[in-house]
């Protein structure tokens, strides 16, 4: 949703105000902040839109529009996260963030931090932090905000924010996922994985999987799920071969795509509806973790979700 100023004349769309133009320029940054705090595309989009509504109705004339808007969206996101924590504690099965295919915010000087911070593994680590720690870490470590800006955004003193940042950094460093440095190597391995997957090549898949690989699914109790967690190269390879080739034969498509900055895929039925996403964690030339999101509520931003139950039934009889 894009904002436009009210008023104007003529048959065309009303021109945007200067404030609306500034907001649109900063929208990618605001979404990127909100998504990393919330782990939800839909909630991040809502937070950004709420930020605009608050700013539009404000008479404030900030010295820094970037700092002002970042503060507004951060505070909204913290409030949303606090209420979301209760729902996530009651979630059925493993909870994963909503898959993000493209990060709208780009900064060449911080591309490594941005890519790592949006990975599923990193977002799951962020879930362990308190809402304030998470917000401070995102603003400081990912987007390099100064401590005065961070303090203003979260409503705490600079000294308190330094302590929050230190605790958050320790938690993140202790469990920080390590990915292969060479993006091309990871992409090539992922291509081989998806080729073997479509062909039903158990041996080929087994070669690409770490011995202790795990496949974990987020269905939220709303989609078919073989098990919350499947362990070991042999088991994972055989489960995938039992499902994917028959799915492809009924017109299903596995579309390789970066998911949360890592190699992955979007799986669609023959009508183009989204069945699930896959995200691969790759380390030392092997796939260590396969995370799949099949909860339809987390896929709507990618397109109409498929009826996964019907897809599974049809594929099973082929």
What does it look like?
There is one protein chain. By secondary structure, this protein is of the alpha+beta class. It has twelve helices and six strands. It has two domains: about 20-175, Up-down Bundle (Butyryl-CoA Dehydrogenase, subunit A, domain 3); about 185-315, Nuclear Transport Factor 2, Chain: A (Roll). The model is unreliable at about 1-15 (pLDDT under 50).
Number of helices: 12
Query: Order of helices and strands, N to C?
Result: HHHHHHHHHHEEHEEEEH
| Low-confidence parts | 1-14
Please give the number of β-strands: 6
Percent of residues in helices comes to 40-55%
Overall body shape: elongated
Question: Which structural class do the helices and strands define?
Answer: alpha+beta
Distance between the termini: 42 Å
CATH fourth-tier homologous superfamily of the largest domain: PhyR, sigma-like (SL) domain
| Rg | 21 Å
Largest sheet: 6 strands, mixed
The share of residues in extended strands comes to 5-15%
* CATH architecture name of the largest domain: Up-down Bundle
The average pLDDT value, as a whole number, equals: 90
CATH fold topology of the largest domain: Butyryl-CoA Dehydrogenase, subunit A, domain 3
Counted up, domains total: 2
| Spatial order of strands in the largest sheet | 2-1-6-5-4-3
**CATH C-level class of the largest domain:** Mainly Alpha
